[in-house]
Amino acid sequence: MSAVAGATKANPIDCLLLTPTAFGSESGTLPVGEFSPGDEVKEFLTNECKVLVVGAGGLGCEVLKDLSLMGFGDIHVIDMDTIDVSNLNRQFLFRASDVGQPKASVAAKFINARVAGAKVMPYVGRVQDRDADFYRQFNMVVSGLDNIEARRWLNSMLVSLAEVDDDGDVDPSTVIPMIDGGTEGFKGQARVIVPRFTSCFECSLDSFPPQRTYPLCTIAETPRLPEHCISYAQIILWPKSFPDRKIDTDSPEDMQWIFDQAKERAEAYNISGVTYMKTLGVVKNIIPAVASTNAIISGVCATECFKIATMCSQNLDTYMMYMGSEGVYTHTFRYEKKPDCPVCSGATRDLAVNPNLTLADLIKSLKASDLRLKAPSLAKADSTLYMQKPKALELATRPNLTKTLSELVDDDDEITVTDPVFSGDVALSLKLNFSLDQPTVFGDDDDDDDEVGGKKNAP
Amino acid sequence: MATKNKYDRQLRLWGAEGQAALSAAHVLLIGAGPTGTEALKNLVLPGVGEFTVVDGERVGESDVASSFFARECDIGRPRAVVACELLLELNPDVRGQSRVVSPEELFRSEPEYAGSFALVIGAQLDPLSLQTVGEACWKRSVPLVVARTCGLVGSVRLQLRRHEVVESKPENTTWDLRVGDPFQTLEELGRECAGMWESWSSFERGRVPYAVILAAVAERFRRERGVLPETARDKADFRHRITQLGGDLENVQEACENCYRVWTSSSSLESLEVRLSHQDASDVTPLVKVLRGIAKFGRIPIAGPIPDMHADTSQFVALQRAYARAANADAKAVRELVPSEVPDDYVNYVCRHLRDVRIVATRSLADELESPDLEDAADALAESDDPTKLAQTPVLWYVALRAADRFLLKRKRWPSTDPLDVKDLVADLQALSAGKLPWTPDTWDHHAIELARFQNAELHAVASVIAAVAAQEAVKLIAHMYLPINHTFFFNAINASAATFEI
Ligand SMILES: [Zn+2]
Fold this sequence. Notes:
The complex is a heterodimer of chains A (459) and B (503).
Chain A: H1 12-17, H2 39-48, E1 50-54, H3 58-69, E2 74-79, H4 103-114, E3 120-124, H5 132-136, E4 140-143, H6 148-161, E5 178-184, E6 187-193, H7 216-220, H8 226-241, H9 252-268, H10 276-283, H11 291-310, E7 319-323, E8 329-333, E9 348-353, H12 359-368, E10 377-380, E11 384-386, H13 391-397, H14 405-408, E12 414-418, E13 428-434
Parallel strand pairs in A: 1-2, 1-4, 2-3, 4-5, 9-13
Antiparallel strand pairs in A: 5-6, 6-7, 7-8, 10-11, 10-12, 12-13
Helix pairs in contact in A: 3-11, 8-9, 8-10, 9-10
Chain B: H1 8-24, E1 26-30, H2 34-44, E2 50-55, H3 61-66, H4 79-88, E3 95-100, H5 103-109, E4 119-123, H6 127-139, E5 144-150, E6 153-159, E7 163-165, H7 184-196, H8 202-205, H9 210-225, H10 232-244, H11 250-257, H12 260-264, H13 273-276, H14 286-297, H15 313-336, H16 344-353, E8 358-360, H17 365-370, H18 375-383, H19 387-390, H20 394-411, H21 419-433, H22 444-454, H23 460-479, E9 488-492, E10 497-501
Parallel strand pairs in B: 1-2, 1-4, 2-3, 4-5
Antiparallel strand pairs in B: 5-6, 6-9, 7-8, 9-10
The complex binds zinc ion.
């Protein structure tokens, strides 16, 4: 007997799509439809189903390969990046000679040449630069992004596309499932987001902690680790020496400068361990990445796409995590909706504020809160409070920033907040409850010393 | 681009040592279908030194449909040759060759063959070939990774006679601070701190690393009570003593959070009993030699590295150096007790990572076939009470797949959805699980029909998951870093659930 004895000679996809099963989508805990085997479902997969792959990096390359070999006939991919040498240990659609080229185009070209019947359409650019009409054309979206920002935005876009009528019922034809994957070293997670039906990406924002930073006082006064010296060179020395220019983290000259300064400081303090590699890691916040983890998570995501498109099996409900460093540990569970999720719940949040707080302080506190906003714009039912854009409106509303809340709004007033972390159609409602017990100023010492050791466990 | 090293992102995981091991390794892949080639792809990309692909088949329609390493234009050519060509394109650092021969034939005529490889991956092997390959690898103590995809389910099985890991790199670093059992310099620093504390200003107090504070309080506690805190009350009392030193100081708060290190930082070899028991191994490896040396040394050598502590730079650096010096002294003493053929670097390496040393041995494939142990399976089933989820428990699919393999072995074909085949399969499933599972699933017939539906096909995305887990285990094994599974990982893509078990 040979290595494939007993295996079918047919296309493996046919085995699944042409035969009935007791385990169709309808039998699972997250049913998305009823499976009916036959040519029709295969026809849908190969000719009608339009899927968008967001990101053509470590996950994206794998997902493109997986989807095209799982029979998807109409694949689109969007990515803004160009190919870097450090991609080549896992982004297998790229070669050394492709360095500098746009990832989306090279990846699409490779798949189209390699896989018979594949049709991949590339888009070079930012996810945020496409509008609702662009996203509306897809049956589903797979995201393999390395940053939280773009995933939050994409999630908010897809949630806002799901139309809810006055009775609160969702129009199923407007629901675009989002299958999201992420990895870090030997760890990863894959999840299915069915807008309005399951939890969304924003519901789980807390499980993605913000980037690690070091307290300023440690960096400036009592450095102990090589990381402290590198951060000093980056945060304190660079702006002093080059006030007019930001660091280009892709420039070997800039990075060498940071490394030299960090090394000098480390030597002055007798700290060992500042290397060029560590400097890159700290300044660029580099996350380790390997081919295998990306392939695992992408494979899970692509399988979910296939099952959602064809309903030929049950679906991931809703979250699978993978940890590969101590044996293999996985956990599959339903990530519950966050009752006051700013994106998918539609709920109005209550916010206790001191009426003597200025509008600028309120904006600052919204940015630092668990909402993690970037540049919030605020409006009342009948008027604008502050708009970050366009310039003219910003100028017109700027005087409000120094006014106190009591001058601008009434107790229990509802305000709406929009922010570039979300797509334009997403606005959060905040109900401001005046309370004199709340602090009057916000954040004198904000990002300074909330890390390390911390007051969180003070006895 | 600020780096010219294409391996930068993975070096941050396994370092130059792991990379050196990987690039020195010659890996054998048996089975060049979708699962096998994807596994090898995930070794070629990170830079395995060399590979050999063995496969006796020719590229057919189903390969082109589900494999990335077989194109339409390759139909009719040997799969091994095509896979080798296309895989080599991925990374110019890697050497590779192919052998067009059926694995069973090869291993029958050249039973020594497996012995020349660092690791063997068997992908999608039929039950007979698997037995032959499994035996050959077991005999020669070559690590074997078995990868298998069947429709929406699949598994990775490791067969390791004895595998040593020095750097198991646990998620949470096990710092070795010795605050309850201090070495001389730490003891002196603690005493100085205890003596001066009252006279120090708040500023001066805030400069002391928490390890010194803990050592100081631990010494006083022991002097007064004769022992370190043992009972919950003692521990609460100890914590209280720390808080008394000034709860508003960050280093004191850190000391409070790290109190437990006082009663868990023993240097006694007893706490390493399990790992040191391996020193009796018949196979006297360098690791065993170092472990024997440490047993003679009489206590755990100090590791060296310490975590960041809120403190003033000079005191922290001085403390860091004190630990490093103590670690060097211990390693030097151990060195004297280890045969000279073991290099100094290796002795230091083991001393530094002693707490993370792991030795893994799995059952052989033959043992598993002969007397499957379904205890893990029973436990997994006993845990769940949701019938929908229960039917998808990965271990049930393991049992079902095994019955289908027995069918294949007996009938020389995969079961079909024909009621007669299904009846046969269900009967075998019942026989396999009788008395071993807490209950008999009433869905056995559904499981049987589903496996028949899968036709043992390598669905690409599922094969890709299985292959990647296999490759990740292979990298861990080759680098002798991180902990491998023991011994089966099973993935059920029906609802994306997975489990690791020993059967
Ligand atoms: Zn949500």
